[in-house]
Amino acid sequence: MKNLENTLIEWEKIFNFICETGQINSLNNYSYYFLKKLNNLIPFFAANFFLFDEQEKIMGEPICFNINQKQLTLYSNYYYKLDNIRQLVFNQPGATKSTDLLDYTTWSKSEYFTDFLAKNNLYYSAGIDIHYQNRLLGTISLFRERSEPDFSLKDLIYLELIAKHAANQVYKLFLLNNIKQKKELKTKLIMKKISQEFELTEREKEVLNLLLAGQSNQKIAKELFISINTVKKHLSNIYQKAKVKSRTELTALVFKSKINNS
């Protein structure tokens, strides 16, 4: 990266950003809140955050600010093939910006620029890929309008600094998400087995699911839009079918079934 001598780094802002984004404990929410916080650190007109699986395929819907679904679909279906920046720096280390990579005199006349970027007021861009031990986890792209200043060296330094933290956080959330998915699948299989064994009705299955999630009778009633007395009636039927007398015994029965199926 260029000489940093005259670049003032506001370390307190970096520290606060890392602290705030480090508290995000859901992979599904991470990209949105990351970009929301990032806009205070590096102002942008538009942005997107893509997450990738182990095969480097996009996971779910990317989070976008000021880029609508129609624009995203057009890019995914066609314009990504014309994206010169993607061709140059995708899955590469380091923060980059468009004005360092391309000659705007030529590039501003390209189909991708005139038909896609310019029409959506995406003039300047900067971005960075997030890696954890050589594995691509995500990519962040920021955009500014032509009327705004280009991304600065300071902006690129900030991207470099926070990407290192983001790599650790996203990788941790990937691991937690995998554990959660495996647990949910296992619980689903156990629920299917128990439902068949005890011949539970669909409503009884719903009540049992919420009970195993630790919900009180009041919360189960609210979730299923039924009265507390109806919840108690369903629980009584479940206890009778499972030959238990309480929540504790029922939970123990399910837990025992999980162990036996491990």
UniProtKB/TrEMBL annotation:
Which terms are listed as keywords in the entry? DNA-binding, Transcription, Transcription regulation
An annotated Gene Ontology molecular function: DNA binding
Q: Which GO terms describe its biological process?
A: regulation of DNA-templated transcription
- Which Pfam families does the record match to this protein? GerE
Locate the HTH luxR-type domain: which residues?
193-258
Against InterPro entries, the record matches this protein to: GAF-like_dom_sf (IPR029016), Sig_transdc_resp-reg_C-effctor (IPR016032), Tscrpt_reg_LuxR_C (IPR000792), WH-like_DNA-bd_sf (IPR036388)
| Name under which the protein is recorded | Regulatory protein, luxR family
